[in-house]
Amino acid sequence: MRAAIFLAAALFGSGALAQSGGRHIAGEFDYYVMSLSWSPAWCARTGDRREAEQCAPGRNLGFVLHGLWPNYEDGWPENCRTAERDPARRESQAMADIMGSGGLAWYQWQKHGRCSGLSAAAYYDTSREAFDSITIPNYFQDLARDISLSPRLIEDAFIDANPGLEPDAITVLCRGQDLYEVRICLTKDLDPRACSIDARRDCARDSVIMERIR
Asked: Phi/psi class of residue 85: alpha, beta or left (left: φ > 0; alpha: ψ in -120 to 50)?
């Protein structure tokens, strides 16, 4: 075993070993990726069939917080061990106004929040602060009909609505012809910053459909 460690160090350098050994430890990460999901698309593809809380009549949700994910400059941690207690059901349910459901909030805490090094309450508070720090472009807040537009226009609309947000800090993703989500990279202080290469996965389509808010 000891020989294998020395061989790995010789081949890859001590920095690679340190990086590998430091992964999946709560609180050890470089920045956040905030994912904003377009709720009408998710409801049409999945949520309506499940009779999901997020898609209930009258919710009228547009962009919702899919998650706030700790990220490395190369890769990301998930399902970390933490000494922090899990949130109470009421704490998760209190996030439903921006996340669509308490179930999603709980899932995001399990998979990503535990890696933040924060308590559940602090992680939820930080997630809400991150969501509130970004202005959703006015045109997308009350979309009354389906529209087709380029991913670049969606990106530009967010940049115009948020001074300090640069093109390399935002990426637009699609699934098929539908807008899926917008991801914005943030420092630990929740200021926009450039995404690392692995987080830059822009939709390659010329145009996407944004389904109306319902």
From this structure: beta
